Amino acid sequence: MNFIEDILHRLHQQAARPVLQEVRDRRIVPVTAGELSSLVRTARSFLVKSGIRRGDRCALLAPNSIHWVAMDLAIVAEGAIVVPLYARQSPAEIVAMMQDCEPALICCGSLELGEAIRKAWADAPRIYLFEDIFGEGTNGPVPSDPPVPLTNDDPVTIIYTSGTSGRPKGVILCVGNINFMLGCTNDRLDLLMGGRVESERVFQYLPFCFAGSWILLLTCLTRQSVLTMSTDLNKLADELKLAAPHYFLNVPVLLERIRAGVEDQIRKKGGLAKAVFNKGKAAYFRQSGGDSHLVDALWLAAARSLIFRAIRKKLGADLRALICGSAPLATETQRFFMMLGIPVLQVYGLTETTAICTMDDPHHVVPGRVGPAIPGIEMKLGEANEILVRGPNVFPGYWNQPQETAKTFTDGWFNTGDQGDVDAQGNWSITGRVKNLIIPASGHNIAPEPIEESLLRAIPGAQQVILIGNGRKFLSAIVTGDVAPSDVERALEIVNPELPHYKRVRAYYVHRDPCTAENGLLTANGKLKRDAIARRFKAEIEELYLAAESGRSEEEKSKRGA
C-alpha cells in the first residue's frame, strides 16, 4: 500500500476522528476524517469532469486550508502531478514556474490571486477557484473509487526550489521518495511522543508548498494527529494557544524572534525577575558548556522555579518539542529553549532529498548540530567539505532540465551545495553554502554564514547581515534594520577580535529596510538572494570600497540608508 492509498484508507476507516482544523477569527473550524474524505471525492470528481489525465500537472495556488489538503490528495489520487506554489510570491515569479511545468489547470484559493495570474499570463490555462470546486451543489454523492494505481517511480509532485542563486528549478518527487520519508518521520515522532497518543496535536503555520511542510502534513494524516493550520501570521501567539500543540515545525527566524521577545519582556520587567533570569541563564550556559560554578546550581534552581517554568507555560504548556529546519539555527537560541525545558529538534535536508536527510534524536540532542543521517540514507563529505547524499530520499531529477540534473550528481551521489562536518557520533552540522563562499584578494575561502550570525546577534535591531568582499582587499557588511552606526561599531569591536585578520569586517553599510520576499531579496522560505542583493546595492558597495581605498575616515565610510 503506497502513501496515498494508506491515507485515503485511514480517512475512510476512521470517519469520526478529527484530523484537520483551521483557526478563523479566533475560533477552531474542524473537519473529521470522513468529512475530509468526502471533500477529496468531490475534488476527484471535479478533476475527472475537467478531463485531467494521469501525469497531467495541476497547479495549486492558495494559502494553507482544509480545501488545499483535499485538492492535494485528490490530484495525487487521480494520478496527476501536484505543483504547489507560494501564494505570496509575485505573479511574475509564479507564472514563470507554471510556464515551465505547463499545468493543465490551476486551482486557486481566491479571485484576487486568479485575476493576478490571468493579468500576468494572458495564455494561462483554466483557472478554477476553490469556492467553485467545493461550492454548494458540488457535494452530492461521489463514487468512492480507489486511487489510480501508482508505482514507486511515478512522480506525484513538482516543487520549485527557492532560487537563491538563479532561476527556480522544478524538483520531481516520486511515490518511492514519499513512502520512504513518511516511514522515517513517523519513526522519529514515535520517539518524541513515546509511542502513539490518542490525540496528537500539531500546529502548522509554514505553507504546504514547501517540501518539509508537505511532508509534515502527510505524516500527520498517517498518524493519530489533529493538525491545526494557521490562517493569520499576525496572530500566531493567539492561534498557538488555541491549538495547544505537542510540537510544530519552525524556521530559525521565528525562534529568534520569540527568544528576543522573551528577553525584551524580562528587561522591561526589571527588578528581581530580571536578576534571577540573567543569573539563571548565565548558570545554564556555563553548565552546558562544561564550566559550572559552585553557586550555579542554586541560581538555576531559582530561575527554573520562578521564571523559566512560567515562560514555558506561556509558550505552550503541552509542548514536547519545537522542530526547526530550512536554515541553520544559532546554537545559543537552541540552548535558550532547552534552558526553558523545550527541546529544539533540528532537521536538515533539501527539496531534492524529500525535505530531510538528518533528524535530531529526541533523546540525544547535540546543540549546534542537526542530528544523524536517517537510517537508510548515506552522507559523506566531498570537495570543499560539500555534503553528498545517496538514498531512497533523493529525487529522480529536475523537470525538463536533464543537464541541470546531471550536474547535480557525482558517481550517484547528490551534491547538496551545503558545507558541513560530522562528529564522532555521526551528528552533522551545516557550516555554509559552497556557492556562498567569499574569496577576497588574499585567496582565502570564507564561509559568510558564521560571521553573519555572530554580527546579527551582536547588533540590536538588525534584521539581516550580509557579508560581501569577493575579490576585494577586505570584507564588508550590509546591515538591514533600524540600526544605529554606533551599534554596528560596538558589534565589530566584539566580533572582529575573535576572528583571523582575513575574516574581519572593515566597513559596513546600513539600510533601514530589511530584505524581504516582496522586494525580491529573500526567497519564499526566507533565504538571502545574495546575487540579487549584490545587484541591488551595487552602487553603495562600490562607494563603500572607494571610500576605504581613498583613505576617508571610518565615519565617512559608514553610510546610512534612507
Shape: globular
User: Structural class of the secondary elements?
Assistant: alpha/beta
Q: Looking at CATH, which topology of the largest domain would you report?
A: Rossmann fold
The residue fraction in helices comes out at 25-40%
Q: What is the architecture of the largest domain at the second tier of CATH?
A: 3-Layer(aba) Sandwich
Number of helices: 19
Radius of gyration: 25 Å
Report the oligomer: single chain
Spans where pLDDT lies below 50 across 5 or more residues: 552-562
Order of neighbouring strands in the sheet with most strands = 2-1-10-9-11-12-13-14
- N-to-C CA distance: 59 Å
The first-level CATH class of the largest domain is given as: Alpha Beta
General description of the model:
It is a single chain. With 562 residues, the protein is an alpha/beta fold. It folds into 3 domains: 3-246, Rossmann fold (3-Layer(aba) Sandwich); 252-317 and 319-435, ANL, N-terminal domain (Rossmann fold, 3-Layer(aba) Sandwich); 437-560, GMP Synthetase, Chain A, domain 3. It contains 19 helices and 24 strands. An 8-stranded mixed beta sheet has the order 2-1-10-9-11-12-13-14, sandwiched between helices. Strands 15, 16, 18, 19 and 20 form a 5-stranded antiparallel beta sheet that branches. The chain has a 4-stranded parallel beta sheet with strand order 4-3-5-6, sandwiched between helices. Strand 19 (413-422) and strand 20 form a beta hairpin. Helix 10 (252-269) crosses helix 11 (271-288). The longest helix is centred in the middle third of the chain and has 21 residues, at 296-316. The radius of gyration is 25 Å and the shape is globular.
